[in-house]
Amino acid sequence: MTNHDLPLSAVVEHIDDLSPQVRMFSLRPAGGVQPWRVGSHLRVGVRIDGHDALRHYSLLGLPQDSQAEGVYRIAVKRADPGRGGSAFMWQLQPGDTLALGGPLNHFELPRGDAHCLLLAAGIGITPLLGMALTLAARGASMQMRYAAREPAELVFADRLSAALGERLQTFADSAGQRLDLDAEIGALPAGSQLLICGPVPLLQAAQAAWARAGRQSADLHFETFGSSGHRAAQPFWVKLPALGLAFEVPAERSLLDMLAEHGVETLADCQRGECGLCSVDIIELVGSVDHRDVFFSAEQQRANRQLCACVSRVTDGGVVIDTGYRPDTVKPSMPTTPKETR
């Protein structure tokens, strides 16, 4: 349904509603399933308000099952409000075609025999499901904590319980159940590994708890949704004086998307606020930055000298930035300067 210059295509073979908010898609790729490891994800071409965009979705389950069945499986939570990717995915029907890239893996299962604690929140279960099943099959030393807002959102709890038994504990916010990060981390044996996937506030809390416990930063491994922030997304204005550009970033689009649309070449990779390649310099800020990345430290985020264009946003105003990009020619048309509030 979209192109994006992605190298693969796949047919939506089957759709399953795992809960009122989570939908699983079985995708049969042309040319067959490529080898992949747990923690891998697909790049998926989506269409948002008439514009092409990319979203990243973790592959579910075990690679050997995917290879045997000839399908990739991903799960998408309907985000309201969101950036538009889940809305596109949720309108798909069996028989539709998607453009794909990957599989890619930036969230590898650590090697060695160190004890592992897996921590999943909500749809963050998607990369950790296969990891948990793999570790259980190996007889590895491990535990898993799985949290969600509602019990119905613990969509893989039964499968994990069958594989892990007492090594799995689940938590539902609506039932008053809270995960105590300091207690969980404090109880871990020396040299343990923590693998975590969830919203940015949870990752930041886990990083802080990990540091308080005196653990090695190299033993903390994480992946983020790349879309959750501290505030609801809203439009904000952007100026690039060096390029003579001014435009507005809609609530459902990213700054990175809009830079590309205006011909500004920007390095990017993960598009989840993890790698920092797309960071831009802040010259002037009106309002506040909702730093949705996990690349910059808390001190760097408070300093507001840079932001990750793929996920971070501005609330109640806008931002003057410099990307360092200096083309021989820039698009000649200057968009109408969005309204500013000072």
Q: What do these coordinates show?
A:
The chain is of the alpha/beta class and 342 residues long. It folds into three domains: 8-104, Elongation Factor Tu (Ef-tu), domain 3, CATH 2.40.30.10; 116-224, Rossmann fold (3-Layer(aba) Sandwich); 236-322, Beta-grasp domain (Ubiquitin-like (UB roll)). The chain contains eight helices and 16 strands. A six-stranded antiparallel sheet has the order 4-3-6-1-2-5. A five-stranded parallel sheet has the order 9-8-7-10-11, with helices on both faces. Strands 13-12-16-14-15 form a five-stranded mixed sheet.
CATH superfamily of the largest domain: Nucleotide-binding domain of ferredoxin-NADP reductase (FNR) module
pLDDT < 50 stretches: 329-342
CATH-defined architecture of the largest domain: 3-Layer(aba) Sandwich
- The percent of residues in helical segments reads 10-25%
User: What is the average of the pLDDT values?
Assistant: 87
Structural class: alpha/beta
CATH fold category name of the largest domain: Rossmann fold
The spatial strand order of the largest sheet comes to: 4-3-6-1-2-5
Number of beta strands:
16
Major sheet: 6 strands, antiparallel
Q: What is the number of helices?
A: 8
N-to-C terminal Cα separation, in Å? 42 Å
Approximately how much beta-strand content do the residues carry? Answer: 25-35%
The best one-word shape is: globular
Calculate Rg over CA atoms.
21 Å
